[in-house]
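>> received
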Amino acid sequence: MSETDAPVPSTFDKARAGLWASLQKHLATVYATEAAFAQAVAFADIFPFAASSATADQLYGYEERRWELRDLFTDETAQLETLTKAIRVKGYAETEKKQLYLLLLGYMDIAASVFARLHTQVPASLPKDEELDETTARFGRVQKFARLNIKGIAGIL
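>> returned
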């Protein structure tokens, strides 16, 4: 069989490969941001931590890294919402859509463990962050939507 006889990847195969490559890049960014955040909170032994347990420079570094992680969480959530909508409206077969949702869900489950640090590795007195709460709720809805579509909505009814 020559190279010209090789099967041409389908639109779905291209979409799946593109999604896989994109999620790997996003995961690398999530891990890098998590590493920076972990380094910035290394001064704390227990959580929530007392602000008095850190120097002013440590608190400043922590706040900067926390904002970076929080901004990444907001951006990733918006992109995941867009991706789930795109999968839903594409003309793929249900089994193909499930494969794409599985890729997304795998990424989201890993990312969720990183983004959870925004709620757990905090100072004892942290002001209410309504935008973070809303992003967390949106992220949860996207995860549930992906899970429902993997299971098959007909299987739930």
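>> Residues 56-89 form the longest helix (34 residues).
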